[in-house]
Amino acid sequence: MPVYDYEALDTKGKTITGIIDADGAQAARQKIRAIGSFPVTVKEVTDGETSKETRSLSFPALFRRITPAHVSLWTRQLATLTGAGFPLVTALTTLVSQTKTHGFTKIVARIKDSIVEGNSFASSLTLYPSVFSQIYINMVRAGETSGTLEIVLQRLADIMEKQQELKSRIQTAMAYPILMTAIGTLVLFFLMTFVIPNITTIFVDMNQALPTPTRFLIAASDLFKRFWWLLVVAIIAGLVALKAFRKTERGLVATDRMMLSMPVMGMMLKKIAVARFARTLASLLENGVTMLPALEIVRNVTGNVVISGLIEKASSEVEKGQGLGLSLAADDVFPDLAVQMVQVGEQSGELESMLYKIAEVYENEVQSSIMSMMAMLEPVMILVMAVVVLFIVLSICLPIFEMNQLVG
Fold first, then answer.
1. Deepest in the core among 62, 157, 202, 238, taking most CB within 10 A?
2. Last residue in a domain, options 159, 174, 195
């Protein structure tokens, strides 16, 4: 069934906009009149327009693009409706009018129409791979096959909410250091390009020998004032080159391996990857996906190609009959505690629940590590800024002290 964008006037003469599905433009106008509004424009939305909006990176689209948070909220709402006994099509119809993001509303409407045409829910989701991941689609397919779709949707919502919660905590913890770094950089830029050149001009005009710190500050300020744009260009060029390098297979492996080998951050990235791996694998296994297909799916959620490669190797060993715990223990990436818990879960027949416990353990460790790191980083940043400012102040004050001694 076609989907139409419309603009209409309500009973108070206020302009309203929205989307509606109907057999044709005339039927769409009749539906709009039926809800007490007067249609002004009615335009059919094509598949190309919908997919374009989901991929758009224009400035306005950044505020209406479909994010994982939108999908998580929609999944929770759909799980609630289906759990309350609503048929799937009825639940989707209800959510079409309640979904706030314009592009996502169109997608939900088209998924509903695809189901009405006789396709399964999972097959309808595959029309939008940029919105719904392979894990999401496979779990929905398993839920449809087993007749437990509402339970699967609830677990999907739980997984996505956990991921969003962890991401939100990391972003919140990083907000203050990033803000401090930005402000410190701007202050340093202002001092080096405007304040220091005006002050040090007095010392240069006196034609007297200046202390070493002062001469270094004047040279650095002069260099920065003349070539600051070159520094900006170099940073941008470096970021572009890094992005291009990561697009190659060799570059992606090299940078991901380097990130894992970093002293503190590397261990934290490993814990995040293990938590994602454990929680997702537990959900897939719990919803009827067998081990080998589950490992094939879950290796793409770790966020690191090195770890993904190790999971792929472990999957090959599992296919030969070896246990998952022993397969993961072959490399040093997975922590010993996680490997031991997997082995205990396999031996006791409670692998899914043990994987959930692994995810909770490492998610809590990541949160604790982040809070500890931020608690240490804040005073370090303040100390660094204090040292820089102290150096600038001393470099300016030393010639003044020498001049006072000469006058005395």
1. 157
2. 159
